[in-house]
Input
Amino acid sequence: MNIELEKKIQKRLRGIYGDSIKEEKALAEIKGKLSQYHAETKPYKRTFSEKDCILITYGDSIVDEKNSPLKVLRKFLDRFVQDAINTVHILPMYPYTSDDGFSVTDYRKISTKLGDWKDIEKLAVSYHLMFDAVINHVSKASDWFKGYLEHKEPYKEFFITSDPNADYSKVIRPRTSPLLTAFDTARGQKYVWTTFSEDQIDLNYQSTKLLAEIIDILLLYAQKGASYIRLDAIGFMWKEIGTNCMHLKQTHEIIKLFKDIFRVYAPGTKIVTETNVPHEDNVNYFGEGGDEADMVYQFPLPPLTLYTLLTGNAEILSDWLEGLTVPDKQVTFFNFLSSHDGIGIRPTEGILTDDQRQILVNSTLKNGGAVSYKDNGDGTRSPYELNINYQDALAGPDESDAERMKKFLAAETILLSLQGIPGIYIHSLLGSRNDYYGKSISGIARRINREKLDYGYIAEQLEKETNRKIIFKELIRRLKIRQKESAFSPLAGQEVVRICPQVLGLKRNNVKTGEQIYVLVNVSGEAIDIENSELYGIELISEKSVEGKIQLEPWDCAWIR
Output
C-alpha cells in the first residue's frame, strides 16, 4: 500500500471510529486484505458519455427450460438488445433466502439457480456490469449469522445486539415490522437489529473485522468484472441509539473509504449509492468534490414524472429540475423511472404536498396497485412506496392501449433526455403490465412488477405485432438516437425552458462539441402549438424539419437538434 492511500485510510478510520486503538486495528486488517490485490499503476480514463444506458434486471427475469437464467439473459441481450444498451445491472445474484435476493447467504458465490461466475465473466465481455452489494444486512441463514449465534470468531461481533427497552422512537424505518428480533444464542437470548425483516440481520460496522471483510468482498466484485457497484440501502449502515440511524457521519466516511481504496485498487469500478430518501439527503452522497459516490440514484424522478403525467402539468417537475446540480464533472445522476422496487414516496418530501402525494396513492389503488407504509416511530405511518407497474401507474383501465402507451413513451423519453445516465427496467423495456398472479400467489406487493418471463414467449411477442413489440421497438430506436448525440452526454449542460404548464422543455448543450438539443414533451392530453424562434433544425424522433414552430399532439415528444 502506498503512503498516500494509507494516510487517506487513516483519516477515514478516524472519522468512523474516533478511537486510536480501533483505528490501528482496522488499518492492520484492511492492509491485510489489500495485500491480496494489485494496485493499478496506469490511470483509468473512462468517463460517462451519451452511450451509457443501464438495463436493470434480475438474473432470472427471462428463463427457459434448457439453459441457466444467466445464459438466457445473454441470449436475449445478444439477439434483441445488442448495442442499444451498454450496461447491465444484475440485481442480487448470490444465494439468498428471502426478499427476492436481498437476503444474501454468501456474498462470494453466484446462486446455482442462476448460473456461475463463468456466466458473469461472459456477460462482461459484451457489457459493462453493475453488481449489487447488499451490505447493510445479511440472511439469518448465512454462515456469518450462524457463527454469531454460536459465539464464534470473528462473527460474534458482526451483528448488532441491542437493549429492547432502549428508546428507538427516532429511528427511521422503511417497514412496520419489529426493529429488533430475539434469537437464542450460545450466550442466551439476544435482541438483534433487523431493519428490514427478521431474515435480514443488520451488519455491525463498529466491528473493524467486518469492515475489512466487506472491503475484500467489494474488491472481489471489481475483480470479477463489476464496472459499477451498487450499495444497497446504504443510508442505514451505521446505527447509534438516540439518533435516526440514517445518513450518519460514519456512513458517509465508510463510503469515502471505499472510494479512496477503489481509486487505487479498482479505478475502473464506480460506486453507486441507493438511498430511497428525500432529495437533499440523497444528493449528499456525492460528498465533496466527488469524493464519495460516482452516481446517485435520482429517486424523486419516478414519482414526480408520474405526478406530471397524471395531472398534465410539468411545472413542479420543471421547478425541481431547475434546482439540480452535480458537484463535480466526474460524478452524475442515475436516472430511472421503474425498478424491481416500487415507486418511492419519501423522495417527494419538500417537493409535493400531502394532498399531491395522495393523488399518487389514489391513482395507484385505482389502477390495480398497492401501497406500502413506513413506521414514523410515533405510532403513525405514512405512504412509503407505490407497488405497481409503471405503465399501469400512468393510465387506468378506462383508458385505451394507445393512450397508455403514448403516456408511457413520453415518460421514458423524459428519462432519456435528462442529465445523467438512464436506467431502464427490463419490464419497462418489454412493455410489461401488472403481474397480479405473481403478487397474489406470493402475498408480496412488489411482485406485481417482478414477473418471470419465458424466453420463447418474449421472443414471439417481440416478433409479432403486439403492444410489447411497439414499446420495445420504439424504446430501442430512441436509445440508438440518443447514443449518437453528444448533447445527451451526462457531462452536457441542462437548462429548463419554460413554454407552458403542459410542456416540459429542456435545452441540453454540450459546450465541448457545440451540439445542442431542445427537448419538448407534451405531458397533457391536449394538442399544443409551440412557436419559438430558436426551434430550428431536425426533430430527431420524427425525422422532420422544424422551422420556428411545432405542434405536439397529446403526449408527443420532440428532440430538436
About this structure: The longest helix spans residues 249-265. DSSP finds 17 helices and 23 strands in the chain. The radius of gyration is 24 Å. Residues 431 and 468 are 5 Å apart (CA to CA).
